[in-house]
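Today's session is about reading a structure prediction critically. Students often jump straight to the picture, but the first step is always the sequence itself: look for stretches that repeat, for charged clusters, for runs of hydrophobic residues. Only then move on to the predicted structure, which in these notes is written as discrete structure tokens rather than atom positions. Here is the chain we will use throughout the hour.
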Amino acid sequence: MREQRELGARRWGITLTGDDTVVGLLGYNYWDVQHRRAAIGYDLKRSLWGKGLAAEAMELALGFGFDRMDLNRVEAHTDAANARSIRLLRRLGFWQEGTFHERYLEDGAFHDVALFVLLRRDRVRHLAPDRGREQGGNTPVTRRSYARRPWTASRSSCSAPSRNATSASCASGSPMSSAI
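Below is the predicted structure for this chain, in token form.
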């Protein structure tokens, strides 16, 4: 993934391992630092739908948001009729907080928008549903490797940035902090 930073926003391009071609976008469209909340959005090339790429990229972005941006709340807006997007958000631990009725006009028809939310406390529960603890420590036990190493991903091979850095690198060699 490659990152673009703007005032109040952080966006990444999704690339496949070994190829710098951007096949999707995701990121935080606004970021309210004071209230520790942001809205996330995503888009992926249609031919790559259903292959787990959006989920993988979202896990990386959510890890970055909660760990590096210190977010407490992440919101996602999706077309209320977009079953795939709703399924993805629910799999990631989001829950539906409400609906904006007839929010936008497209192709001559008004469409509803579903508002989904993931709170920090819900993400911790989602990552460690058994709420177990490792022996001798306070780190939640999880069944998912990304919970311990949120920047490691099988297809994108992203590496974690240092604590003081503002970027990370991916297998494509593109730093996550460079402009798309």
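Discussion point for the tutorial: Residues 40 and 85 are 12 Å apart (CA to CA).
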